[in-house]
Amino acid sequence: MTGWLFLLPGFGIICLCVLLPAALALGLSFTNCSRFLTVQWAGLDNYRRILTDPVALKAVGNTLYYLALFVPTNLALALGIALLLNRRFPGIKFIRSVYFVPVAVSGIVAVSIFRFLFNYDNGPINAVISTMGFEPVPWLASEGWAMIAIVMITLWKSTAFFSIIFLAALQDVPQELYEAASVDGAGRWAKFFHVTAPSLLPVIMIVFTLSAIGAFRIFEPMFVLTRGGPADSTVTVSLLAYGAAFSSGELGYANAISFVLLTVILAVTLVLNRISRKLEARW
Amino acid sequence: MVTMGKSAGLRIKWRRRLYRLPALLLYGLILAAGVVVFGFPLFWMVRGSLINQAMWMKQPLVWLPPVSELRLDAFGGVFQSEQFRMGRVLLNTAMLGLFTMVFNVLYNCMAGFALSKMRLPGKGLVLVALLATLMIPFEGMMVSLYLVVAKLGLADSMLGILLPGAANAFGIILMWKFFNRVPDDLIEAAVLDGADWGTILFRIAIPVAAPAVATIAVISFLGGWEAFLWPMLITDPHSRFDVLQKVLASATFTSMGGSAEVEWAYLMATALISTVPVLVLFFLGQRFFIAGLTSGAVKG
Lengths: 283, 300
Fold this sequence. Notes:
The structure holds 2 protein chains of 2 kinds.
Chain A: H1 2-28, H2 45-52, H3 54-85, H4 92-100, H5 107-117, H6 124-131, H7 146-172, H8 175-183, H9 188-217, H10 220-226, H11 237-247, H12 251-282
Helix pairs in contact in A: 1-12, 2-12, 3-7, 3-9, 5-7, 5-10, 7-9, 8-9, 9-12, 11-12
Chain B: H1 2-50, H2 53-57, H3 73-80, H4 86-117, H5 123-133, H6 142-151, H7 158-162, H8 169-180, H9 184-192, H10 197-208, H11 210-225, H12 229-234, H13 244-256, H14 264-284, H15 286-298
C-alpha cells in the first residue's frame, strides 16, 4: 500500500491533468457544449463542421505549410551547424556556446525580439535588404511573408537546440570507424555517407519526429504576433482550437479540433517510431 | 641527421597548413557568419532595452547608438509601469519556477521510486499510461484541461497555474529508469535494518540518483520560469498572478497595433530580465543544462 502512497501525488496529477482532459476532449467533441457548460449531444456534427468550415481547412493547410517549411530546413540547418562545429578550431568551445545561446531564450522572448527585427520601417532585416537594393518586405503584415517570418523565428531557436543533439551524436561516433574507413581509402564524402550518416540515422529520426510534432503544435508566435492574420494566412490548428474555445465559447467544436490534433500527433509519433526502429534494424 | 629530419618534417607540416589556409579561412568566415546570425537577436534585445523611443524610431536605422544615448531608465520603468508591474510579476515567476522545481523533484522521485523498488500491483498498467501521456500534446488538451481546473475552482489562482506542471510523466520515467540501476540489495539491506521507505528514498536512493535529480530540477525550473500558454489560459487578463512570459506576450501583441502605448525599451528590458537568469544557469552549468534539455529528446 505504501507503494501506491508514493506513486499517488505524481501519478494523480498526471491522471487529473493529462489523462482526464484527453478523455474529456473526446467526450465533449460529440456535444455542442457552450461556454456556460450546457451539454447537448451533437453526434459527429463538430467533426463534420471541421471538414466544411473554410477557416478550419485553411488552418489545416497553414499548419501543413508551416510543417513543410520548418521540418526540412530545421533538419538541414541543425545537421549542417553540428558538422560545422564538430571540428577543432581556436576558441571553438566559446563559439559553440554562442551558437547554443538561443536555447536559453524563451519562445516568447524570441518572438518579442524578432517582432522588432522584422519591423518594416526601422527593422535591421529590412535595413539590410534595402542596402542591397531590394524593396523592404512587409514581413508580418503580408499574407505571403507572415508565415515565412514565423518560420525564421522558430528556426532560430530550434536549430540551436537540435544542433546540440546532433553534435552530441557526432561526438559519439566511434573514431575507429573513421580510421578504418581511411585505411580502406575512403574520402571525405565517402566517410560522411558510409560512417557519419548511418551512425546518425537514429538521431536524425528523433529530430525529424520531434520537429514534426512541434510543427503540428505551433501556436505561440502566431498568437503573439498575428492572431492568425493577415487574412487568416497564419491561422493554425492550435490557434483555431484556442479561438473556438476562448473567443467564441464553442467548447464542443474546440474539443473536436483538439482531439483531431491529439490523434494526428499520436499517430505521427507511433508511425515515425516504428519506421525508425525498422530502419535501425536493417542498417 | 636527427635534427635535419625533424626540421624537414616541420617544413612539410607547415607547407600542408599553408596549403589548407584558404579552406581554414573559409571555415572561419562561415563560423563567424553563424555567430552573427545566432548572436544578433540578443544584441538587438540589449540595444533595444537601452534606448528611448525616439532612438528606436530614428531613420535611417542607428545600428550602434552612441554611449551618450544609452539609458537604464527602462529597467526602473518596468517596475513602475501599471502594465508590466515587474516587482509582482517577477515574484510570481520566480515562485512558479521554484515551486515547479520542488514539486517535480519530490513527486517524480517518489513515483519513480515506487515503480522501481516497491511492491505495486498494477505497475505495468501505470507505466503504459505514463508512456502514453508522453505523446499527448498540450495544445490538444488545453481546452479540456482548462475546464477541469476551472471546475476545481482553481481558475486565476497560483495553485491553478502550478498544478498541471507539478509532476511530469517524463520525469517519473527518467527516475524509474535511474532507480532501476540502483541494486536491490542496497534497498533490502536498509529494509532489514528497519529503515522506513521515506528514509530509504531520501537517504539512499536520491543521493545515488543525484545526476537525474539535477536534470529534473533544471528542466522543471525552466518549465516554470518560461511557462506561457497555461498561465495565460488559466489567469484573467491583467491578473495579480501574471508571470513574465504572459506580460511580455501581451505587451508585444499590443505593440503590434503600432500604438505608442508601450515603450519598446520596456519590452526588451522585460525580455532581458527573463533571459539573464537562464543565461547564467546556461553558462554556469552548461553540461547539466544541455543534459537536461537533450535527455528528453535522445534518451526518452
